[in-house]
Inverse folding.
């Protein structure tokens, strides 16, 4: 295995605790949603609950991308086409920091996955399985629109998620095998071994309290929204 480019560096906080909890919580919601949908029956109630939880987490991540720790902010991984080409050619400029947070290719994967998950959650709000479960906002759309959104939710959306998750896993394996570095451990502990000049993300008690308040606000908004349609899942 090749030597890690991080060898000899010092621990720098890259992923703040709210970002790490978001990442693993969303992963659990996705896995749980897929399993509950495949089994069906009484587990469809859990499919709906996990969908609402994923909706809350996605809203939180959007806001956190504006005010979270340095490397969790969208500003740190929205790259120009020129930066993407420098990354692909292996010729970064000083200060590019491609290997600190999300790399240019990793950023595209993150944005793609967030968009696909948002579409999956959004279509689920208006879906109808024609058995016993309907989305909480189905009364706000026509039957034809609900059918169209249901088709996406049950077919295209599902397979897009599978494809992007597979791509995500393959990228992790590529970094381990080809570059000798793990992307999983930093998302568990928060730190990466980096050079001293790399700025660290804030991750103190104040930031974590802010994240909790924001999460509760997002949860309240989701609860209000699904309540507009009456009883969820009925």
């Amino acid at each position: 295995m090749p030597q890690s480019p991080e060898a000899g560096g010092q621990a720098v906080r890259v992923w703040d605790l709210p970002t790490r909890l978001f990442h693993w919580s969303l992963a659990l919601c996705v896995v749980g949603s897929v399993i509950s949908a495949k089994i069906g029956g009484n587990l469809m109630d859990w499919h709906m609950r996990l969908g609402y939880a994923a909706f809350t987490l996605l809203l939180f991540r959007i806001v956190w991308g504006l005010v979270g720790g340095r490397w969790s902010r969208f500003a740190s991984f929205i790259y120009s086409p020129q930066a993407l080409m420098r990354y692909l050619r292996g010729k970064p400029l000083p200060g590019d920091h491609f290997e600190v947070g999300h790399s240019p290719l990793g950023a595209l994967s993150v944005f793609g996955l967030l968009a696909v998950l948002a579409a999956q959650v959004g279509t689920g709000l208006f879906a109808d399985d024609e058995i016993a479960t309907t989305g909480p906002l189905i009364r706000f759309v026509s039957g034809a629109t609900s059918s169209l959104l249901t088709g996406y939710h049950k077919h295209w959306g599902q397979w897009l998620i599978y494809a992007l998750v597979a791509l995500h896993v393959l990228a992790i394996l590529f970094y381990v095998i080809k570059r000798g570095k793990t992307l999983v451990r930093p998302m568990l502990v928060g730190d990466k071994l980096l050079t001293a000049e790399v700025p660290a993300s804030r991750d103190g008690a104040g930031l974590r309290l802010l994240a909790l308040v924001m999460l509760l606000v997002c949860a309240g908004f989701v609860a209000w929204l699904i309540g507009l349609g009456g009883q969820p899942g009925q």
